[in-house]
Fold this protein.
Amino acid sequence: MIIQCGRTTRRVVDEARDWAEQAATLIATRTGCTRPEAMRSFSRESRVSPGTLENLSRERLKRLAVEDYVGIQQAFIAEINRAIGALEAELERARARGLCSGAFWAELSEAQAAITYAKGLIRASEESSKFSNPSS
């Protein structure tokens, strides 16, 4: 099945491409691998063929299968959750070192608020995809 879902196909393809690109950047940063290696890792996690992701990144796809869109979305959310986990661990280390007082308190509070906000966005996205996913 090809995605139509009331949105233009181009917008859906662009959204999936952005997710894949951002996820590859996060993977490369987290693991220290090259961008092509990160994209292969994302391909395995999203269960989308490397060729489809390559065509997506080079803007050669005009349509996207529902399964590929959902796979990219879920793998992107999983990668963001990993990044959030790493940030939370870093905040915890900062608290343990006593950096939560004085000059750093405002910055750490902002970071915690950003993490909480990001988690809320992810939850909202997951909830909305349950209702709009034509393959479920």
About this structure: Residues 35 and 117 are 28 Å apart (CA to CA).
